[in-house]
Amino acid sequence: MKILTGGCSVYFGQDGQVSTAGTWTARTVVARNSGAQRITQIVSEYAPGCSPSLVNPQAEEVLYVVCGEGTCRINGFAYGLRPGAAIFVPPAAVYSVENSGAETVRVVSSCCPEDPQRHIVLGPLSESSGKPPGLLVREEVREDIHAGQDRRFRYLVNTDVGCRQITQFAGWIPPSKAPVHYHHYEEAIFILEGSGIVHTDDASSEFTAGCSIYFPVGVRHCVENPGPATIKLVGAFYPSGSPGEAYEPGRSE
After folding, report:
1. Per-residue pLDDT tens over the stretch 113-166
2. d(CA 103, CA 101)
3. Rounded to 10 degrees, what is the CA torsion of 244, 185, 158, 128?
4. What confidence score (pLDDT) does residue 127 get?
5. pLDDT for the residue 252
6. How far apart are the two ends of the chain, measured CA to CA in Å?
7. Which pTM value belongs to this model?
8. Nearest alpha-carbon partner for 145 in 21, 243, 239, 11
9. Rounded Cα distance, 183 and 114, in Å
10. Does 192 have pLDDT greater than 50?
11. Helices (H) and strands (E) in the chain, counts
12. Is 48 helix (H, G, I), strand (E, B) or coil?
């Protein structure tokens, strides 16, 4: 882990606190004990089989499938998982992940606010009937939204699926360097593809695919892509809003 100005942090693939329960291995990267205030980021891997069931009694959680295929069950309703799928888990909902293939299912999740009562639920869960709530979003059907001249993003889990606290998004950064800016929200991103450099006022750190970056509220920063490949990332921030919201020092808000 490398800590930059104002608590901005870059986490590498080996960073974080690892825990295992059944088929589920979780690496907690961004959390209160690593310097965040209310947002978390966990990189989970699910081996073949069904994971233990989990509940956040008070917090919302958003999931993004990096690789692998399977099923996420939320309160007894089944949602198909494949790369690019995003899932909203409402507060107090019980969920599990079943890996039905040979490949590991890798999921990046964010929970907000961090829920100290998060726990595994023991015992079998019943199936639900009827139409499942619309908690699944497919990245490929979301529209591109442009931020600045060259960067774009797509909303994933957002207010339109009932999520009130967190905005989850996918973003693409072509070779470029953004102006120095800051946000009014706390943000955690995970680098899916590509490499680059994150800058704060007086420090910089390189990052590659598999790295995580935490941005506290109000910290001046910019992300540079020196090329040649486009950077792809998945991110989440609290409180909910627009990934295109950025304030440049010296400019009126």
Report:
1. 999 999 999 877 778 878 999 999 999 999 999 887 788 999 999 999 999 999
2. 6
3. 160
4. 80
5. 44
6. 32
7. 0.94
8. 243
9. 20
10. yes
11. 0, 25
12. coil
